[in-house]
TrEMBL record:
Domain Nudix hydrolase: 28-160
Keyword vocabulary terms for this entry: Hydrolase, Magnesium, Manganese, Metal-binding
The UniProt record lists the keyword Magnesium: yes
NCBIfam families according to UniProt: PRK10707.1
Entry cofactors: Mg(2+); Mn(2+)
Name of the protein in question: CoA pyrophosphatase
InterPro entries tied to this protein: CoAse (IPR045121), NUDIX_hydrolase-like_dom_sf (IPR015797), NUDIX_hydrolase_dom (IPR000086), NUDIX_hydrolase_NudL_CS (IPR000059)
SUPFAM superfamilies, alphabetized: Nudix
Domain of life, source organism: Bacteria
Length: 194
């Protein structure tokens, strides 16, 4: 699937509202992440980061560029684009935002809004070592294969909760990041492309 096919199909689908969020009974800090996709040789790749080990929230986890909303941010899109620029050097003018998903609550007290964007041109990744320890690309097709996406259920505070995870080349992608990828794949639903 190339960027044009993805963009058209993403836009034509009704927005998926079913997000498996953590059952939270407290106020949440608002955050946004950019789900960055780039076409390489006619196929979309998705860019993931690994959070620095010294961070207080989610150290060492695989994630998307993103973070907490700043007072100066006018929208979740602005937050996601600002954070992507700060964390990996992806400037806002190099991203075409094509949509977003509803917020996802985490056990750590965040309400994360995923912003989906297509990277227009290859760019030099410049890591902020205070935030990110590495980046890597995964062919989106890998995640479209449902046998590469897993879910297990557990109970917390009397509520059943699904946790998504996706192993990829020795990396263990899980939690909100995996839930967002799963939602994206279900939203696109390749069966409609045949």
């Amino acid at each position: 699937m190339n960027a044009t096919q993805f963009n058209v199909h993403f836009s034509l689908q009704s927005l998926a509202s079913e997000i498996t969020s953590a059952p939270i009974n407290r106020s949440l800090r608002k955050a946004a992440v950019l789900v960055p996709l780039m076409e390489v040789d006619g196929q979309l790749q998705i860019l993931l980061t690994r959070r620095a080990l010294h961070l207080r929230a989610h150290p060492g986890q695989y994630s998307f560029p993103g973070g907490k909303v700043d007072d100066a941010d006018n929208s979740m899109i602005e937050t996601a684009l600002r954070e992507a620029d700060e964390e990996i050097g992806l400037t806002a003018d190099n991203v075409t935002v094509i949509g977003n998903f509803p917020p996802h609550a985490t056990f750590t007290g965040f309400e994360v809004t995923p912003i989906v964007g297509i990277i227009k041109q290859p760019f030099d990744i410049i890591l902020d070592p205070g935030e990110v320890s590495e980046t890597f690309w995964v062919p989106l097709q890998y995640f479209f294969n449902a046998s590469n996406r897993y879910t297990f259920s557990f109970m917390r505070n009397g509520n059943d909760f699904d946790v998504h995870y996706m192993p990829y080349k020795g990396k263990f992608i899980w939690g909100v990041t995996a839930a967002i990828i799963d939602l994206l794949c279900r939203h696109i639903d390749l069966q409609h492309l045949k």
